[in-house]
Design a protein that fits this description.
GO terms for molecular function: ATP binding. This protein is an alpha/beta fold and 336 residues long. The chain is 34% helix and 31% strand. The chain has 2 domains: 9-250, Rossmann fold, CATH 3.40.50.300; 256-316. The strands form 3 sheets. The protein has a 6-stranded mixed sheet with strand order 5-6-7-3-8-9, sandwiched between helices. It has a 4-stranded antiparallel sheet with strand order 11-12-10-13, with helices on one face. A 3-stranded antiparallel sheet has the order 2-1-4.
């Protein structure tokens, strides 16, 4: 258990999570006629290998059905790999699931670990008993986590009466009460408003900085990755396609951000400095595309100085679009 405020430097390089050619194959039966079924195999995870050092925050992204959640379930011991080797803190999750449970925390964005009809504080008291958390540490952790996530006034409210954002913050507290060394987050900001997302992200940053908690984050929101992770892995069709910095992903996938500009009146297309370009105009609103690896600051400053600006916003590239461009790029290289 890592109790110190800062992780020792000699532990930072330790492979805390290890996957070596891990596979997961499901048998699927499909009805093909009266009393007839066809059996086939679906390879959800296909020979994936990667390492995550203690204290890292890593984004694990990909389109729906790519194998992200299957990987997380194998890392927690819910599923047993069909092949390969998997270790978390030196433990085989599927063989020693109970032992591992005391060292990990899990948040599934679309499922809650809280008791639906009980007040929030009762769920935490049950966690206290289940994980056999010492009383002093339970009280300290509850106080440390509840305040920044603004849950103090909600502890006596039944979980079913909480908003999605409040419940998500409640789930994060529940996952952290026992001081896990690694935290798996599966879509933790899905459906949250901007304010709730900011609170969740800030709490996760502080958790990693102060406690050295290792975080593996799956999400469809690239802003989650940009604000929390220095490293991103892309999975698609069960295979690891990319492992490196987010800037490198944008370069490989040739992804673009979109700057949406609202002007005071309808005008001709904005003359934007290359490589930015106008891709759409509707009345006083214009859409400009620019490389996702570049900052929007210079483009925004130029437009604000030369045009009657009312409002603007930046839209992040869609993960599916980034991966699709990666496929096109790889196919082009294979042909050449």
């Amino acid at each position: 258990m890592v109790d110190q405020d800062v992780v020792d430097e000699d532990l930072v390089d330790e492979d805390f999570i290890e996957l070596d050619r891990v596979e997961k194959v499901f048998d699927v039966r499909k009805k093909t006629g009266f009393l007839k079924r066809e059996r086939r195999q679906v390879r959800a995870v296909d020979a994936i290998s990667f390492r995550v050092a203690r204290g890292e925050m890593v984004g694990y992204i990909g389109p729906n059905g790519a194998g992200k959640s299957t990987t997380i379930k194998m890392l927690t011991g819910i599923l047993t790999p069909s092949g390969g080797r998997l270790r978390v803190a030196g433990i085989d999750p599927s063989r020693e699931r109970t032992r591992l449970a005391h060292r990990i925390g899990v948040v599934f964005g679309q499922r809650t670990t809280l008791w639906w009809d009980l007040p929030l504080i009762d769920s935490y008291r049950l966690m206290h008993r289940m994980y056999r958390i010492p009383d002093a540490r339970y009280r300290a952790n509850l106080g440390r986590l509840v305040e920044p996530l603004e849950l103090g006034d909600l502890l006596d409210v039944p979980v079913r009466q909480l908003s999605l954002g409040q419940r998500m913050r409640g789930d994060i507290v529940a996952a952290l009460l026992h001081d896990p060394e690694v935290l798996y987050l599966d879509e933790p900001t899905i459906g949250l408003d901007v304010v709730s997302k900011a609170k969740v992200r800030e709490s996760l940053r502080e958790l990693n900085a102060e406690r050295g908690t290792t975080v593996l984050l799956t999400t469809h929101d690239l802003q989650d990755i940009e604000q929390l992770c220095s490293r991103v892995m892309v999975i698609d069709h069960g295979r690891l396609m990319y492992d490196g910095p987010l800037t490198g992903l944008h370069e490989v996938g040739q992804s673009e951000r979109t700057l949406v500009v609202d002007l005071e009146r309808e005008l001709p297309p904005i003359e934007a400095p290359a490589p930015a370009r106008v891709v759409r105009v509707e009345g006083p609103r214009q859409w400009l595309a620019f490389p996702a690896s570049e900052s929007a600051a210079l483009l925004v400053a130029r437009i604000a100085a030369e045009y009657p600006l009312v409002d603007l916003s930046v839209r992040e590239p869609d993960i599916e679009a980034v991966i699709a461009k990666m496929y096109v790029e790889q196919a082009g290289k294979a042909v050449s």
